Amino acid sequence: MKRRHFLRTSLAAGTAAAATLTVGRAASAVPVRSLGLDERRWDRATDGPLRLSSNENSLGPSEAARRAILDGMGEANRYTHGLAGELRARVAAHHGVDEASVVLGNGSTEVLRMAVQAMAGPGGWGPSPALLVVPDPTFEHVEQYAGPWGLELLKVPLRPDHRHDIDRMREAARAARGGSSRGPVLAYICNPNNPTGTLTPCREIEDWIREADDVVFLVDEAYFEYVDHPSYRTALPLALERPNVVVTRTFSKVYGLAGLRMGYGLAHPEAARRIQAFSGRSNLNAMGILAATVSLGDDTHLAHSLRTNEDARRVTYDVLDELGLERLPSHANFVLHRISGDQAQYIRRMREAGAWVGRQFPPFLSHNRLSFGTPEEMGRFAEILREFRRRGWV
Amino acid sequence: MKRRHFLRTSLAAGTAAAATLTVGRAASAVPVRSLGLDERRWDRATDGPLRLSSNENSLGPSEAARRAILDGMGEANRYTHGLAGELRARVAAHHGVDEASVVLGNGSTEVLRMAVQAMAGPGGWGPSPALLVVPDPTFEHVEQYAGPWGLELLKVPLRPDHRHDIDRMREAARAARGGSSRGPVLAYICNPNNPTGTLTPCREIEDWIREADDVVFLVDEAYFEYVDHPSYRTALPLALERPNVVVTRTFSKVYGLAGLRMGYGLAHPEAARRIQAFSGRSNLNAMGILAATVSLGDDTHLAHSLRTNEDARRVTYDVLDELGLERLPSHANFVLHRISGDQAQYIRRMREAGAWVGRQFPPFLSHNRLSFGTPEEMGRFAEILREFRRRGWV
């Protein structure tokens, strides 16, 4: 496939505030103004900024998902209990598990919330206060959900090769169990990890799980479908045989439905039941259910998404290598790469140039997380990055 | 406006299971088979059963809401933070409050969940365990959310005229505050009340709120827009001046967006901040935000919904009066009316006849909750009810 893109950049001299970089395609180049958060408008998406900050799927929902929404929207006045049952059955069949092992969520983040609260509550896995062990840095939601409940938080830095430091996480859990509080321990595993995009060897995770029946494992596999590595595999088999392991998946990434808030957890029926008690009632929206239901079996769109991501990764790697900007090995739809200078300033300058990137993930303050858009979008990003280099900004 | 409907009923003699009641319109009469929950399929809605069991708005989403979904669906791959900000501003303007007083929820039920958890948590309004005081019967979600957290639950029966028994609720709260536990008290007020559709005088509620700074009041006004009674008013002014009062509203009822899960709470900024800490991250879906944003200012659809509801209520009252089936005065989009015989059997027979009604609301087991559909739908329901009378079933 041949992808042509026209890109014109003109940076006004002087301060970043005065920059008026113009980015566009073919004859329809449009000026992109500095966008504040309050200007994040739906209708700007097509010709608007490059949205490379939230690990979304730039292809959007599949054709089948759009048709499902179109067909269903007239019935958006109806509650969704029946529809949710159908999706649950579809998810169960997709993974070859019993329906009692499926917990549907308002995004997989709701399943994370439910699991944290199942730990924090008095009817939960054990006496409070619990200890939460997380890698650092990682996806922030679990830590945020734990915040109000007084869980003790232990953040274990990633190893130099950016895998989870399973040894240290395991040791911390063991010490907590042997201590006087004897509260339950919740361990969060994010594999591939966000924001690094790196893998932790499944063998290390599995060994820990097999050894620690008294630790509750929350294994976030949001980027599962993107991984193409021979030793990578899901923790689902362990979850099905043990009531202390929960695997989460999402429709927000490879399926392109982030705005519809659809995800799920897979667990032993006993764990699923405990978690479900903390669910929102009627937690799923109709358009999300309909789109997710047809997306799950849509292998064509899945393959297209994965191919697009690979192509976009190649375009991105090329420009990073060309500019000598070190990058972590990505196994997801984003990459963490080195920048020079202040990260906040970089993110702001990128926004002013029409590209949303980042956010801050301490301690990686000389890096930036960049989501992969389409290959064409990454070509536009590459031009901006080269211009940054010319200006000495990166 | 002239509404014609054709209705043909033919009940086979014998058991309810053998009943083959046919309900349809004009020439397109279709057989309606016994529907199990697993058959609640989206695409049956038009010619399918009468859906009068969930207090939905049979008119469906407004034209503007559908257009908003259509325009936005291609961007369902994007997270919704920016869109949510726009809706928050719109809600704040609609009620003339500060944005800091608005808590958006995945349905108003999520706001109820957040508020219960803000009470239950150690960082909440006070030391646990808390006492939850609710009218009985009422909407069940608050009680359900409290379940896992060990809150003490006190259910105070409605008075004989079906208003909340504010005196007894107040006395219970006062006794709890004077007791040794000194835990916080959460009081749930549902006005109009579900499932009775009845009003509690606002003056009684307000007097209690003014007296009890140490009780947290959760005032559910899901059916606010339907009320046409001179003394009825929102508790919002009290919520804005006191950090212990939360008012909830929903887009599920008069706005016809139940399937999109959109609601909100209005509260003093301090209370809103406390509650918000228990929100799901990215809790709002894009189609819901878009539809809600245009629906809030759509006075035409609002007026149409209210007029339709009034017409449907008249059709319903007529047949209930004709058959001598006592009814409670409805101030919402449903009515609680007397039936004869077993309630579960009535609900099942109705389902077999093609109408979803009820569910069980003890202790009202010789009554049934009936949602108002369109006037035409209520005409079809009336014919079924008359047939039930002919068969001695009601």
Number of domains of chain A: 2
Main structural class of chain A: alpha/beta
How would you spell out the order of helices and strands of chain A? Answer: EEEHHEHEHEHEHEHEEHHHEHEEH
- CATH C-level class of the largest domain in chain A: Alpha Beta
Please give a quick description of this structure.
The structure is a homodimer of 394-residue chains. By secondary structure, chain A is of the alpha/beta class.
List keywords for this structure.
homodimer; alpha/beta; Aspartate Aminotransferase, domain 1; Aspartate Aminotransferase, domain 2; 2 domains; seven-stranded mixed sheet; two-stranded antiparallel ribbon; 15% strand; globular; disordered N terminus
Account of the protein in words:
- The structure is a homodimer of 394-residue chains.
- The first copy, chain A, is α/β, with parallel strands linked by helices.
- The first copy, chain A, has 2 domains: 16-60 and 300-390, Aspartate Aminotransferase, domain 1 (Alpha-Beta Complex), CATH 3.90.1150; 63-297, Aspartate Aminotransferase, domain 2.
- Chain A has helices at 63-72, 81-95, 108-120, 141-146, 166-178, 202-211, 236-241, 269-276, 286-296, 299-322, 343-352, 375-390, and strands spanning 22-23, 30-31, 50-51, 102-106, 131-136, 152-157, 185-190, 215-220, 245-250, 262-267, 334-338, 355-356, 367-371.
- Chain A has a 7-stranded mixed sheet with strand order 4-10-9-8-7-5-6, sandwiched between helices. A two-stranded antiparallel ribbon of chain A has the order 1-2.
- In chain A, strand 7 (185-190), helix 6 and strand 8 (215-220) form a beta-alpha-beta unit.
- In chain A, helix 1 runs antiparallel to helix 9 and helix 2 runs parallel beside helix 9 (286-296).
- The longest helix of chain A has 24 residues, at 299-322.
- The radius of gyration of chain A is 22 Å and the shape is globular.
- The two termini of chain A are 31 Å apart.
- The interface between A and B is large, with 74 and 74 residues.
